[in-house]
Write a structure and sequence with these properties.
Radius of gyration: 27 Å
Distance between the termini: 34 Å
Strand content: over 45%
Shape: globular
Number of helices: 1
């Protein structure tokens, strides 16, 4: 529910090649799904599908899902049957179901539940209490909460019981209409805590007691008009809450002296654990916090010198892990972090377009989106796509932009296969991603191969497209040959037979020290074919080019 401080085509593929890096991104949908009224695309993985929602002021919100192949299909009627449901405000997974919260200008907040087959409204309009909007869902352990805003009255908190039954557990604004929004809800030591957004008198932190009763635990004086963390009250406008190392922390938004990180000591006692703005007053807020590798990584919003990334190891230990802003001061905020392949990734928000960066340790971040290096070069070719969120689906990294979901491909295919004695043209597919450390497999699969005949992968570090044995040699010599494997028959296709090899096992075996993170590899399956119509006794697939990730 926090207002983003930076910014409230047909199918394409874009590639970035720089040094040893070679990343290819593919758009998984046409821009705005071909409807100019669609906006604010959001996505979530559920039940083996990627669900994508769009706002639409003409027909109502649209919900589609995608298996990872082919086109998206419609999952729900536009606006869930009501065109006034024109915006999706939150997506959440809870108790095995997908929940979607919408804004409805006529009836207020609606929450819809999906079990993978059907959709049903999971609340009464506006929870049966006045008019609410801007609902955000918080699945916390065994309980689902919703925080909503009430015009002129402050925020409310509701607890989901079952069916369409919700119980209000917070009076408007927690007793102060100035608490216009719920910045965060977290559970710590079995208690529910809320941080508020309050531009008038300053943010507050409260602990839930029972019924609709909450008690303030911030260090501010009791009663309305007394800001929680700041002598001048209103400077600290927002309280984001984090639980790290079994300790409760609050990070405030402060546009005057910079964000303030605080540790909760019990009662109403808090200790500021880092300097204002983490040493740079232009760091107005911690836009995103993400646990990774035993530390908490913090991304700031900074309109002056650009975003910064800090690592928090507990106590008062903050370490800056970006050398200034990631890439350029025009990157104003770190909007999202995601761990993929055991590596931390981040997206930056910028008026020149969203970017995706990979953390390589120290203060080094490598840009992996398809944009040209340097400031002013948007990552996905469209300055209107100013921000992106990251998610993993089907073992691959996806960047969700306001109009397109992009997928980082594990490799690109080139060259052509050779027709075999069974009349098939064998071709390559992959599953997973190539990595020097990931425990998940990266399968290089040769499809439609000759039954019962062994084959092996040849790999090198440059592409070729040479006439060879009546087909094409797709890798440039010198190349390396893997041990031979025999095919299996899972059915389907021309021959129904396939050859598979987990190339991550080859990378991580250490037998070839040149197979390191960042290395670009080219590969092709070669197979015995005694009845080869060209007379050379072999069959060849097309080629694959991929980059080994960390």
């Amino acid at each position: 529910m926090k207002p983003l401080s930076v910014l409230s085509l047909p199918f394409l593929a874009l590639a970035l090649a720089s040094g040893l890096q070679a990343q290819t991104w593919t758009a998984t949908n046409p821009a705005d799904f071909g409807d100019a009224n669609n906006d604010n695309l959001q996505a979530i993985a559920y039940g083996g599908f990627l669900y994508a929602t769009t706002d639409n002021g003409a027909t109502g919100v649209q919900v589609r899902r995608w298996s990872g192949e082919g086109a998206y299909t419609t999952s729900a009627p536009n606006g869930f049957g009501d065109a006034s449901n024109d915006a999706v405000t939150s997506l959440a997974l809870f108790a095995g179901d997908l929940f979607v919260a919408t804004d409805n200008g006529a009836t207020g907040t609606e929450v819809w539940r999906h079990d993978g087959a059907t959709w049903a409204q999971a609340n009464l309009d506006s929870f049966g209490s006045g008019f609410t909007f801007d609902g955000e869902l918080f699945p916390l352990g065994s309980t689902l909460y919703a925080a909503v805003r009430v015009p002129g009255s402050g925020a409310e908190v509701w607890r989901y019981d079952s069916g369409t039954t919700w119980v209000r557990i917070g009076v408007n604004g927690f007793g102060s209409a100035a608490n216009y929004d719920v910045a965060d809800l977290v559970v710590w030591n079995s208690d529910l805590y809320a941080g508020t957004g309050n531009f008038s008198t300053g943010c507050e932190v409260l602990r839930y007691v029972s019924g609709t009763n909450w008690v303030r635990v911030d260090p501010g004086a009791p009663g309305p008009g007394n800001g929680g963390f700041d002598a001048s009250g209103q400077d600290n406008e927002w309280a984001s809450l984090y639980v790290f190392g079994n300790v409760l922390y609050a990070g405030t938004e402060n546009v005057v002296t910079g964000t303030e990180p605080w540790r909760y000591d019990g009662g109403t006692s808090w200790t500021q654990v880092g300097p204002n703005g983490l040493g740079n007053f232009a760091n107005q807020d911690i836009e995103e916090a993400f646990p990774f590798g035993g530390s908490l990584y913090l991304g700031t919003i900074n309109f002056s010198t650009g975003n910064e990334v800090w690592r928090f190891d507990g106590g008062t230990s903050f370490t800056k892990v970006s050398s200034g802003a990631i890439e350029a001061a025009t990157n104003l905020a770190i909007l999202d972090f995601e761990e993929w392949g055991g590596v931390l990734h981040a997206t930056t928000a910028s008026f020149s377009g969203a970017e995706v960066h990979r953390y390589d340790g120290g203060t080094t971040w490598t840009r992996i989106d398809p944009g040209a290096p340097g400031p002013g070069n948007g990552g996905f070719g469209d300055t209107s796509n100013a921000f992106a969120e990251l998610l993993e689906f089907g073992g691959l990294l996806h960047a969700v932009l306001p109009d397109i979901v992009w997928r980082l491909e594990p490799g690109t295919f080139y060259c052509t296969g050779k027709t075999s004695s069974v009349g098939c043209v064998p071709f390559l597919t992959t599953t997973g991603f190539p990595s020097a450390t990931a425990t998940t497999p990266f399968q290089i699969v040769a499809n439609d191969v000759v039954p019962n005949e062994s084959g092996f992968i040849i790999y090198a570090f440059k592409k070729a497209n040479l006439n060879f044995h009546g087909g094409k040699l797709c890798v440039k010599s010198p190349f390396v040959r893997t041990p031979a494997k025999t095919p299996k028959n899972p059915g389907g296709g021309c021959s129904g037979w396939v050859l598979r090899r987990n190339f991550n096992a080859t990378i991580q075996s250490g037998l070839d020290p040149s197979l390191t993170a960042g290395r670009v590899v080219t590969a092709q399956w070669r197979q015995r074919d005694p009845a080869d119509p060209a007379g050379f006794g072999d069959a060849l697939t097309d080629g694959l080019r991929f980059t080994i990730l960390p």
